[in-house]
Amino acid sequence: MNIVHLLSDRAAAAGDRPAIIDHSRATPRTVSFSALDSAAIRVAAQLRAAGLQPGDAVLLLQPVSAELYILFTAILRSGLVALFLDPSAGWKHIDQCGAIQPAKALVGCAQAHLLRVVSPALRRIPLKFTTDFPVPGARRLDLRPSAGLRGLIEDCPDDFPAIIRFTSGSTGPPKAALRTHGYLQAQQRVIARSFALQAGTLDLVTMPMFVLANLAAGVTSLIPHADLRSPGRIPPESLVREITAQRPHRLSAAPALLENLADYCLQHSLTLDSFQSIFTGGAPVFPRLLVKLQAMAPAAEIVAVYGSTEAEPIALLNQRSLTAEDHAQMAAGRGLLAGFPDEAIQLRILPEAGPGSGGWLTQAEFQSATLPAGQPGQIVVAGPHVQPHYLKDTATAETQLQVDGRTWHPTGDAGYLDERGRLWLLGRSQARIQDAHGILYPFQVEGLALENPHIRRAALLRHDERRVLAIEATHPIDLVALKTRLRDAAIDQVLVVPGIPVDRRHNSKIDYPALRRILSRS
Q1: Residue range 97-117: mean pLDDT, rounded
Q2: Residue 505 pLDDT > 90, yes or no?
Q3: pLDDT above 70 for 215
Q4: In 77-141, where do the E strands start and end?
Q5: In this model, does residue 147 exceed pLDDT 60?
Q6: How far apart are CA 216 and CA 463, in angstroms?
Q7: Beta strands in 418-454 (DSSP E)
Q8: What DSSP character marks residue 505?
């Protein structure tokens, strides 16, 4: 079934209720569920009239806005495949993605079409559409809703492709993550349950991928006037103004954004009492952030979400469920508690040196390799909302584990299950240190360091054959006292750096390769 059937049914039920409140531009606008549906019908008709057929790939380059979701649902409605990539990664990245999956059409704002000047791959795309201003060589799409306009939804089997999302390729060639209509439906069911989506609530959106789930659940999405490409750099005062004015019930955001927001509120003695729930993930969520968020929004359920591009969510942790013992164990270097795995997820821990990816096992071999509670290893997951493969078979073979024909996804993270079945995270498997002192994982040290409120970020790595902890501080730090506290971790050196580099997507994950380059130059 085409995922748009869920959206169309919701539009029929919700009618003129707001689907998207768009503050992304100087002039705010509100689009109802029915208006978004009819605008998508109009766009879908224009795409089909241009000659596009089900299965054709359409590259979508549009800022986060109401228009983005009109275009996105029109593409899905027509049985076309939406391509997403990161244009800020440069023209070489764009051309690499174009070689992996050529597009039949480019749809985007006039500014996006300027990339055609530097990208041969974009120039080779046969059909080009602009969504705002006229552009030479591109047709202008009409995105206006039309009352009473009817349109067919292309019938798509569950295994029919819906989305291809390219990774940034920061550590190698970009991979094309393929999501089918069946996958999107399974993911919608899990997200609606795990995130307790309720029709009629207002969600402040900072993670654009969740808007599709909101549309299917009848949740109104508030798009703030902010650059969502850099969540950690969004001015918290501007968000506070929007929150105070609009009074959203929900917020899902990266840790970096929420840390800035919580610090601002605490500094100005503000509480945000409209929130019923706040979800944070996309990067490690340390306990001090959860405590800050609870102080910022005392009435809200504060939930840390562990997941990945290929599986969202994997595990959830409610701040209210944390005990004093849990806090003490994290402060003592046991790792980072991620909570119970979601009920739709199957999760296992395999040896670090075992068949984590690119392997084929029988069920008996897989069971034999699975580690018991308390033993750390690599985390692998399976389930209906776990991406089964990438676009190219070679990428799938390199990154997935096959067990009697079933795909298990290695997350690349290390962790273990405790005696209660809760997941504890230890950091990226490739970031662990193994030397004469034994094995040491990043979160065993970083979590302990972050107990100091004046340490903004901390990163453990092996550099020049030494165990090094790099810290980014907001105030002077007593390094002797810190190193004494880290005595059991056998840290050779604690370095204060002006800034620890983070990922571009969430501005929250430590970019270890970039940090190594910084240390090598110093």
Answers
A1: 94
A2: no
A3: yes
A4: 81-84, 105-108, 127-130, 139-140
A5: yes
A6: 48
A7: 423-428, 433-435, 438-440
A8: T
- Asked if residues 43 and 51 have their Cβ atoms less than 8 Å apart, the reply is no
Tell me how far apart the alpha carbons of residues 214 and 205 are, in angstroms, rounded to a whole number: 10
pLDDT the model gives residue 148: 67
User: Tokens at residue 47, please?
Assistant: 């795409």
Sign of CA dihedral 417, 382, 99, 61: negative
Whether the per-residue pLDDT at 171 is higher than 60: the answer is no
Q: For the structural domain made of 433-521, what CATH number should be given?
A: 3.30.300.30
In this prediction, residue 394 carries a pLDDT of: 41
Question: Where in the chain are the domains?
Answer: 4-190, 433-521
Residues 6+ apart with CB under 8 A from 486: 445, 448, 449, 469, 494
Residue of 32, 11, 19, 21 lying closest to 151 (CA atoms): 11
Which pairing describes strands 406-417 and 220-223: parallel, antiparallel, or unpaired?
unpaired
| Over residues 235-246, mean pLDDT | 96
Q: In whole angstroms, what is the distance from residue 98 CA to residue 69 CA?
A: 23
- Count of residues for the chain? 522
pLDDT of the residue at 393: 52
The domain 4-190: what is its CATH number?
3.40.50.980
C-beta separation of 402 from 361 below 8 A: yes
**Can you tell me which residue has the tokens 């004093």?**
324
Contacts of 101 (CB under 8 A, 6+ apart): 57, 83, 164, 176, 391
- In a 13 Å sphere around the CA of 291, the CA atoms on its Cβ side amount to 10
- Residue 396's closest CA among 443, 439, 366, 360? 360
Distance (Å, whole) CA 248 – CA 163: 29
3 state SS for 41-65: HHHHHHHHHCCCCCCCEEEEECCCC
**Which carries the bigger pLDDT value, residue 396 or residue 460?**
460
Is residue 141 classed as helix, strand or coil in its secondary structure?
A: coil
Of the pLDDT bands very low, low, confident and very high (cuts 50, 70, 90), residue 398 is low
Instruction: Give me the sheet containing 161-166, strands edge to edge.
Output: 139-140, 127-130, 105-108, 57-61, 81-84, 161-166, 176-180
Query: Rounded to 5 degrees, what are φ and ψ at 81?
Result: -110, 120
Asked if residue 3 has pLDDT above 60, the reply is: yes
Separation of alpha carbons 229 and 206, rounded Å: 9
